[in-house]
Design brief:
The complex is a heterodimer.
Chain A (H helix, E strand, L loop, with lengths): L1 E10 L2 E11 L4 E5 L6 H8 L7 E6 L2 E2 L4 H7 E4 L11 H11 L8 H11 L12 H13 L5 E5 L7 H16 L3 E6 L10 E6 L2 E6 L1 H6 L5 E5 L3 H10 L3 E7 L2 E6 L5 H10 L6 E5 L3 H9 L2
Parallel strand pairs in A: 3-8, 3-9, 6-7, 7-8
Antiparallel strand pairs in A: 1-2, 1-4, 4-5, 9-10, 11-13, 11-14, 12-13
Chain B lengths: L1 H15 L2 H21 L7 E6 L5 H12 L3 E7 L2 H9 L5 E6 L11 E6 L4 H25 L22 H31 L1 H6 L5 H29 L9 H25 L3 H19 L11 H9 L1 H15 L7 H21 L6
Parallel strand pairs in B: 1-2, 1-3
Antiparallel strand pairs in B: 3-4
Helix pairs in contact in B: 1-8, 2-6, 2-8, 6-8, 6-9, 6-10, 6-12, 8-9, 9-12, 9-13, 12-13
Chain lengths: 299, 367
């Protein structure tokens, strides 16, 4: 549904995208995972025909992003990272306006948005500026869906949204996928990666790896351990000093640990006890997408 | 078409829901017309004149009486020393002193020399007052000669002011204000409104839609076009019925040329919006690149004829100059359309050029 090959884009001397290639199949949720400044928004702009790439080709729904930009603008839905609806129009007015802009009306594709829209319907006459963050995001999604697009582009839709709303949002995406919409979504949150069908890890304009989340975690290839102690920061420094340790980094409440050769957690634990970390705990853990990302970026 | 109408409707919501802006847009022309028409007029009214004379004769009295007669002057009183005259002007108690030097004789009823002392700090007003006072003395002298049975000088220059016999400055300002308001509303407000969509990110969504970008722009201009028309009507009505300016020429052509000018201003707004990314920049460009030259160089306030020649050339490339010229000819002089063909052609030509440039510069993408 989306084919990207060797896309390059630079702003002055800074390369935003350095030869990006991937493809998204029809009806899947494809996640573009990477930190701020990785080039996600630039890629979205190129795919939604808002920008021209310096080099490379891209196709969306079978249309070239440069030649057939009009066709693409007809059949995709785009929700930018920043809330970009009219703040001085009401919920209903925004929805009706975008329906008209796409040459349709609210009724035609009501089935598609019904579930989401029903949650904001009580606020029909409220100005968009006065909605809460989660509500704004639901309205923006409704507006992006009103013309039943084939492909939906969501640029960091969950940034700045509370955890409950984020969870709801992903449930909504799954249901949209069931209705046959292809979704390209970007996010800086690694924990959302597992909710996608396939993901691409992106950093500094390069795609590090593209795979299903499960396969990506499986290909991590190293036994991973979590260590913890009351003196968290001292433990991190001490572990990094230890010769057998390949890598040690903070991960939530604990630190994740990789051994250079064959893992020897017991010996390590002993050594740390000797260094004064009496309360050290060490246990094997399953790698996550974030571990994969750190692994790939520190190669 | 449905797209277009929905968009125009939305644009009206934007304006209507911002009552402060709307108030400014609708009230500004009224306030400006009234201000320029009444308060800021350069008409000579109630100039306080004192007379400095060594001796108060009948003839001098007669001058004083004449001063008190018209609404142009107020007679302040007699003075007898230069020092008095000086302190009077310095303290701002009088605007002008009429000084008669030397003892009056039958041949020279006002002494050897008549001198008008004015406050040169405001040269425009001073020169107007000078003209009026000199004219008044001249008339009085002529009448006195006639009464004594002396013949008038054989050749005498008479003055007849056509079109504006009372020399009202509002005749001059009204076309100027029209030229300014249209630029302000059409160019500045539209460019700011279009750039606002870029700044808030809504332009991103609109571009990724089947709506043609140019249609979006035109739809954005419609409300401002209508506002400008409302203002045009307001100004013409105020000029006619409040300031008593006769609309001498064809109303049809006044409106036709104004509409061309409004479209020109809209095209300017569109062009500015394609060049800048922020509302502040759009505002600054409109204010500095458009408004300043219009106010200073278009002949709205300062006569073009007294500008250095280089500024006259600059003045020639400002469309407002030609609009004001056309409006003066049509409204005040009441000439036929054939007399403003040149202005009409220049305005239409500029409209086409600016519109072409704006459409050419128009971006269908973000960059």
């Amino acid at each position: 549904m989306i084919r990207v090959s060797e896309i390059w884009k630079s702003y002055g001397k800074t390369d935003a995208l350095r030869g990006i290639s991937f493809s998204v199949n029809r009806g899947e949720i494809f996640g573009l995972i990477g930190p701020d400044g990785a080039g996600k928004t630039t890629l979205f702009h190129i795919l939604t025909t808002l920008m021209l790439a310096d080099r490379g080709h891209a196709e969306v729904a079978g249309h070239d992003v440069v030649e057939d930009f009009r066709e693409i603008r007809r059949c995709v839905g785009y929700m930018p990272g920043r809330f970009s609806l009219y703040q001085d129009l009401t919920v209903r007015e925004n929805l009706e306006l975008f329906a008209s802009v796409f040459g349709t009306d609210v009724q035609s594709n009501y089935g598609l948005i019904e579930e989401i829209y029903r949650q904001i319907e009580p606020f029909n006459n409220r100005l968009a500026a006065k909605l809460s963050g989660g509500m704004k995001q639901k309205l923006a999604l409704c507006c992006a869906l009103i013309h039943a697009p084939e492909v939906l582009f969501l640029d960091e839709p969950t940034t700045g949204v509370d955890p409950t709303s984020r969870k709801e949002f992903w449930q909504m995406l799954r249901r949209l996928k069931e209705k046959g919409i292809t979704i390209l979504v970007s996010t800086p949150y690694m924990d959302e990666a597992t909710l996608c069908d396939r993901i691409a890890l992106i950093q500094k304009g390069n795609i590090l790896q593209t795979d299903t989340p499960a396969q990506m975690v499986r290909s991590f290839g190293h036994p991973l351990f979590a260590i913890s102690s009351v003196r968290r920061y001292d433990l991190l420094l001490a572990a990094r000093e230890y010769p057998e340790i390949l890598r040690c980094y903070s991960f939530g409440e604990t630190h994740h640990l990789l051994f250079r050769g064959t893992p020897c957690p017991d010996i390590f634990k002993q050594a740390m006890r000797m260094s004064g970390f009496d309360d050290i705990e060490i246990s094997p853990v399953d790698p996550t997408i974030e571990d994969c990302f750190i692994q790939l970026t520190s190669l | 078409m449905k797209q277009f109408l929905a968009f125009v409707k939305k644009e009206f919501f934007h304006i209507l829901r911002d009552p402060r802006t709307m108030l400014i847009l609708l009230a500004m022309p009224v306030v400006q017309i009234l201000l320029f028409g009444f308060a800021l007029s350069t008409d000579v009214q109630n100039v306080r004149v004192a007379i400095l004379t060594p001796k108060t004769t009948v003839d001098v009295n007669r001058i004083a009486f004449c001063l008190g007669q018209t609404s142009h002057f107020d007679f302040w009183g007699y003075l007898h020393t230069e020092t008095d005259a000086d302190s009077l002007l310095r303290n701002g108690l009088a605007d002008a002193v009429l000084a008669f030097n030397g003892a009056p004789t039958p041949q020279h009823p006002f002494g050897k020399e008549v001198c008008i002392i004015l406050n040169g700090a405001d040269p425009n007003t001073a020169s107007m007052q000078n003209t009026y006072i000199a004219q008044m003395i001249q008339n009085t002298l002529l009448r006195m000669q006639e009464e004594k049975g002396e013949s008038r000088p054989k050749v005498q220059a008479g003055i007849r002011l056509l079109y504006n016999p009372q020399m009202k400055s509002s005749y001059n300002f009204v076309p100027g204000i029209m030229g300014m308001i249209m630029i302000l509303i059409c160019a500045m407000m539209t460019s700011v409104a279009i750039v606002r969509e870029k700044e808030t990110g809504t332009m991103e969504i609109l571009l990724v839609s089947p709506m043609k970008p140019l249609v979006i722009m035109v739809a954005k201009m419609v409300p401002y076009f209508l506002l400008a028309c409302v203002n045009l009507a307001t100004i013409l009505l105020l000029a006619r019925y409040v300031l008593d300016i006769p609309i001498a020429g064809s109303l049809f052509w006044i409106i036709a040329i104004s509409l061309i000018y409004i479209l020109l201003a809209l095209a300017f707004g569109l062009l500015i919006s394609t060049l800048v990314e922020t509302q502040v920049a759009a505002m600054l460009i409109s204010a500095i690149v458009l408004m300043m030259p219009i106010i200073l160089l278009s002949g709205m306030i300062f006569p073009r004829e007294s500008m250095p020649s280089i500024l006259q050339y600059v003045s020639n490339i400002i469309p407002t100059t030609w609009y004001i010229s056309a409006m003066r000819k049509l409204m005040i002089q009441g000439v036929d359309i054939s007399a403003v063909i040149k202005e009409l052609c220049i305005l239409s030509g500029t409209l086409a050029t600016i519109l072409f440039a704006a459409v050419h510069k128009f971006k269908i993408r973000l960059e």
